[in-house]
Amino acid sequence: MGMLFAQTVKKLRTQRELSQRELADKLYVTRSTIARWENGSRLPDISMIKRIATYFDEDINTLLNMASESDEAPNVILLDDTKITLTGGLPVLEEVLPNATIIGFTKPSEAIEYAKAHRISLAFLDIELGKTSGLDLCKTFLEINPRTNIIFVTAYSNYSLDAWATGASGFMLKPITTDSVKNQLTNLRYPINLGGSSI
Prior knowledge:
It is a single chain. By secondary structure, the chain is of the alpha/beta class. The chain is built from ten helices and seven strands. A five-stranded parallel sheet has the order 2-1-3-6-7, sandwiched between helices. A two-stranded antiparallel ribbon has the order 4-5. Strand 4 (128-129) and strand 5 (132-133) form a beta hairpin. The longest helix has 14 residues, at 83-96. The model has no long low-confidence stretch (mean pLDDT 87).
């Protein structure tokens, strides 16, 4: 998990002759948090990576690329109970995320089973899924993997306030377009490998 990032953080810290505790004080985290970053057992979220980049005057994209390094392509799902949204949305996601494994689902139960078997990096969720609420599903996906980025996709803007209260990374209105997806990717809580770049 992000060993290049771990090594880089340690190198940047030692170059400044800082102890883990001193760096923790600078970044407003605990010493044990720094230790976990440096041994590769944990990765900071994207807002903290930006803080690290600013403190060390390092290129943010370089650090994000290191954090998102993986031998596996990120798993991305699109869950919507209308096939027309999947038919139109999946090619857009494949264009924007060429390095990802992208799968569409119309049934929430199938998406949940997939999430249990595969680490989901990014999930695009419709909010109205028949009797199931995408807002509730967001909690389920985050219980399975707290580092899943959730982006709600809906035709109804009045859901936006409820969506923000779930811990999701973003909210976008249908139809799914290249520009709307790219805009949402800049707000991800956790970096993912985008195939040559990272956000």
